[in-house]
Amino acid sequence: MSHEKDLLLVPLHVSYIQNLGKACFLQHNKNDLMYHLTAHLRMNAIYWGLTALCTMGHPEALARDEMIDYVMSCWDEEAGGFGAHPDHDAHILSTLSAIQILVTQDAIEKLDIDRVVKFILSLQQPSGVFAGDSFGEIDTRFSYIAVNALSLLGRLEDLDVDKTVNYIVQCRNFDGGFGSRVGAESHAGQVFVCCAALTILDRLDVIDTPTLSWWLAERQLPNGGLNGRPEKLEDVCYSFWVLSSLSMLKKLHYIDSDKLTSFILSAQDPEGGGIADRPGDMPDVFHTHFGVAGLSLLGYPGLVDIDPVFCMPAALIEKKGLRKGWQALERRTGYEKSSATVENVLESEHAT
Ligand code: GRG
């Protein structure tokens, strides 16, 4: 027996994202303060919205041509990359989102691939880490973005892999996790970017899998939600950062999937649609995308498989020959809860 609060409200979330899409592209919204306050996130927001729609089985719910036109209007001719909004400077994050959107929309021919590759490679520092843009902020997020983007463009062979991996290895901490730079505290978001970069580069051997898997399992709180580091609050987006890392380590069963599923569903807005960081808060497209992506990895019925490494539709990544050896939970056909409890699984692992 399932109640409405136990179900993902797909039609409502689709129309929530469609309404945001209208706000993104329509001219009259340029008189709206919120349009300008969120301009620096526009390209990412389109990627989050589009990917969430793909995961919910509605890839065509936003206008394709308008979306591609918007992406191309953010091209920074001087730098050879994409900004988040027309006339913004190019940044590696908006460049990855632009590539992901064009790949998803099967419009990669719009790209000047050589120039984009040159822009990305120009951001690698002598230490091996990447900067986000010409202003020079460094972060392991940007290393992952470079690896992901080059891989999607079929140009990974242009990367100095050893240099890239060496920097990530230096960010590994005593708890098995990774931080944003050398010496920085482990954080689930940074664990995702480091695991995913190492997965793409076939270098998972540098990870202390047992220690990191336990650290990731310890992110689950009594209410079922996951936090990003010890003593912090749960947040729906960690459903993706933690689950994707565990799926790359093939340890997804370390999480109580029923409790996490209920937590994510309880953060839905049952009136206007969208998912928030936690129950009762305002929804946004970031948490909607990562909540739905988390549910997909948990085998929630009716959703489409998402690739946890690239955070894009799994079928698309597979078609490009880029799939790595991750494991999600089997897609359920009904709404019954899964039979295995975490205690059972961990006990049986311990016994063997
Ligand atoms: C293509 C999926 C994809 C990603 C691109 C930008 C990026 C690469 C990854 C971001 C990874 C990351 C660091 C996620 C964490 C985001 C987040 C919720 C940060 C909040 O940090 P704090 O310190 O929050 O404000 P806590 O929860 O620790 O209190």
From TrEMBL:
GO terms for biological process: protein localization to membrane. Binds 1 zinc ion per subunit. The keyword Zinc applies. CDD domains: GGTase-II (cd02894). GO terms for molecular function: metal ion binding; Rab geranylgeranyltransferase activity. Residues 31-312 form the Prenyltransferase alpha-alpha toroid domain. InterPro entries: PGGT1B-like, Prenyltrans, Ptb1, Terpenoid_cyclase/PrenylTrfase. It holds the Pfam family Prenyltrans. Its cofactor is Zn(2+). It catalyses: geranylgeranyl diphosphate + L-cysteinyl-[protein] = S-geranylgeranyl-L-cysteinyl-[protein] + diphosphate. Its EC number is 2.5.1.60. Keywords: Metal-binding, Prenyltransferase, Repeat, Transferase, Zinc. GO terms for cellular component: Rab-protein geranylgeranyltransferase complex. Belongs to the protein prenyltransferase subunit beta family. Catalyzes the transfer of a geranylgeranyl moiety from geranylgeranyl diphosphate to both cysteines of proteins with the C-terminal sequence -XXCC, -XCXC and -CCXX. Heterodimer of an alpha and a beta subunit. This is Geranylgeranyl transferase type-2 subunit beta. It comes from Lentinula aciculospora.
